[in-house]
Amino acid sequence: MSGEFFPGIPTIAYEGPKSRNPLAFKHYNASEVVGDKTMKEHLRFACAYWHTMRNGLADPFGGPTAERPWDDGSDSVDNARKRVWAMFEFMQKVGIDFYCFHDRDVAPELNDLTASNQALDAVADELLKAQNQTGIKLLWGTACLFSHKRYNQGAGTSPDADVFAYAAAQVKKALEVTHRLGGEGYVFWGGREGYATLWNTDMKRELGHLARLLHMAVAHKRKIGFQGAFYIEPKPREPSTHQYDSDAAACLNFLREHGLMGELSLNIETNHATLAGHTMMHELRVAREAGALGSIDANTGDELIGWDTDQFPTNIYLTTQIMIEVLRMGGFATGGLNFDAKCRRESFEPVDLFHAHIGGMDAFARGLKTAHAIIGDGRIDAFVKERYQSFDAGIGARIEAGNATLEDCEAHILATGEPSTRSGRQEMLENIINEFI
Ligand code: XUL
Ligand code: CO
């Protein structure tokens, strides 16, 4: 496997911030230690098979533009096998150690489930061979339960029990293949698990069915001995008008209601957070504080276009905020930073895949260093701690401990009078952050 698919493109090296070579890292230095780990260990980058290998870069107004000379465009298993080697050559050259896939990205969906499963097994053989040759690992696998026509009204939430059963069969197979490939996780993202109109929808019943699917998957995971993590990925809409897993809080509520807390954690994606009307930092904070931040789909949206544009992250402020939350949870366990991102339609050459990933990796390297420095500096943490100090003693401590009644609060105010509040100092804190950016 030497330069067959990306001829003339070298293995990407770290050249430092002064380099002007577009095919070099300026900030991501895999072996450089930040705090207690190397950058590579902190960041755990993963490459998304669906975008890197399968996205033709079409948009709602125009067809595909991507030039992928190794791909003959057919649904043959041979073409799928060949693609595996293009993907692994790419990852080796760009220095990414993990990948993520949907069953239908790596292998074609054929005439029936048996044929599709056989194709998936054949491609999985190839993936295993490529993993063993390169040392590249599977961060997570998933089943595509949103592209095929049968899922037009949902998969786990379809009104048709046969469609539910088909989805469950697909999850079973995708989970088994993920297990066979040593995957560290498995994702559930429900693009069609929602509705277009409530006039035809029994929401309570659909949510119950979705929970049944997840419980079945948990049972199967135990049965086959899969040790990886299960993640659920929030997104508010697109393709459905309303998706049930709309944001981190909605997912946590769903998991709690259906006895799935602890079985699944969250895979949070930046562009989904912004579509939900939240910042990425908000979504990460909600998940982390529930002890349920599992993994990250590291992309970004375009504020001028209202879609899930799945762009590569370039904004250092964003990557800093993300890495602050990751460092505060003590780093990733099974999760990582999966570039669920694609090149722009205008960037159709194979080399653009390199520029895109290099940029994302450099942006996260800077975010990591900046976040580490901000936490090490300690001023932000100290300010926040101080801001709540009135809850450390007296009436505040009694409130927090559950030892104060409404009468106690009333007596306190009657004795002490009007509280004197203090500035939130937002601007001062933003200035501190900018000292480090
Ligand atoms: C879609 C999306 C998916 C999931 C996996 O918006 O993010 O690619 O990450 O199904
Ligand atoms: Co995603």
How would you portray this structure in words?
The structure is a single chain. It is built from 16 helices and 14 strands. With 437 residues, the chain is of the alpha/beta class. The chain has two domains: 13-377, TIM Barrel (Alpha-Beta Barrel), CATH 3.20.20.150; 380-436, no CATH class. Strands 7-6-5-14-13-12-10-8 form an eight-stranded parallel beta sheet. Strands 1-2 form a two-stranded parallel ribbon. Helix 3 (77-94) packs parallel to helix 5 (113-134), helix 5 (113-134) runs parallel beside helix 6 (161-180) and helix 11 (316-328) packs across helix 12. The chain is globular and about 80 Å long. The mean pLDDT is 98.
Offer a quick outline of the entry.
Helix 10 runs parallel beside helix 11 and helix 11 (316-328) packs across helix 12. This protein has helices at residues 39-43, 49-54, 77-94, 103-106, 113-134, 161-180, 203-224, 248-257, 270-275, 280-289, 316-328, 350-377, 379-387, 394-400, 406-416, 426-436, and strands at 13-14, 24-25, 33-34, 37-38, 45-48, 98-102, 137-142, 185-188, 194-195, 229-232, 242-243, 264-269, 293-297, 337-339. It is α/β, with parallel strands linked by helices and 437 residues long.
